[in-house]
Q: What sequence folds into this?
């Protein structure tokens, strides 16, 4: 029983089953509003990394089209269900792949008018190299939209996060509590506009970034 809980397939299935329920409180209180605000100016073809259960699909403006990558089939099945209830579901091309394995699809679909990461740079194995690898697929001037939880600024909370991170990662399919995603994006050379930080259980970073 425990072995199956900690197996990769076991945690993937549990994420698919319980993720939306686990997140529903914070989504209703804070995140849905933040997502809507972040996506309000989007247009054209969006590249979404880590579509998850598809929570963003109905929040993207109606005239956009979306290419999404999601390696967990248990999460993606919810995204397909969600997409089916949205007007013109043909707008969504969702692939059951890690983004890193989707080079052919990216080459064919590029250039993209926006790149979206929500609650995913905490989870991808090599976030910096993934972000760098995606920049060539963007149209010049395309925004990179980010809504991510990051390590807390408070020393005691940071210590707690670092202490529980190994177990958390194991239970939450690779999600890290300890990443400084805001600094990582800056180090890549992306310039943030409209950046904001807020606390909702964890500390979150929201920004629209551009290549300089
Ligand atoms: C915490 S969920 C967030 C889902 C969604 N973006 C949201 O805002 O609710 C993170 C998702 O990223 C996916 N993921 C992890 N590594 C990935 C990669 N290399 N490419 C695409 N998706 C990835 C996971 O399977 C997981 O479903």
A:
């Amino acid at each position: 029983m425990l072995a199956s809980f900690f197996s990769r397939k076991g945690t993937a299935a549990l994420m698919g089953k319980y993720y939306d329920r686990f997140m529903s409180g914070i989504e209703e209180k804070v995140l849905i509003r933040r997502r809507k605000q972040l996506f309000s100016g989007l247009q054209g073809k969006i590249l979404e990394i880590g579509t998850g259960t598809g929570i963003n699909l109905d929040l993207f403006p109606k005239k956009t089209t979306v290419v999404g990558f999601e390696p967990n089939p248990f999460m993606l099945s919810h995204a397909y269900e969600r997409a089916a209830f949205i007007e013109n579901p043909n707008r969504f091309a969702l692939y059951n792949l890690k983004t890193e394995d989707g080079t052919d699809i990216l080459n064919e679909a590029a250039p993209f008018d926006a790149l979206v990461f929500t609650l995913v740079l905490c989870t991808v194995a090599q976030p910096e190299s993934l972000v760098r690898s995606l920049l060539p697929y963007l149209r010049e001037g395309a925004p990179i939209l980010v809504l991510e939880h990051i390590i807390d600024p408070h020393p005691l909370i940071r210590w707690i996060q670092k202490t529980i991170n190994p177990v958390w990662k194991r239970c939450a399919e690779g999600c890290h509590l300890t990443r400084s995603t805001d600094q990582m994006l800056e180090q890549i050379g992306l310039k943030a506009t409209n950046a904001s930080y807020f606390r909702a259980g964890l500390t979150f970073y929201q920004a629209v970034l551009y290549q300089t």
Observations:
- The chain has a mean pLDDT of 95.
- Residues 49-50, 52, 55, 69-72, 75, 98-100, 118-120, 123-124, 175 surround S-adenosylmethionine (CB under 6 Å).
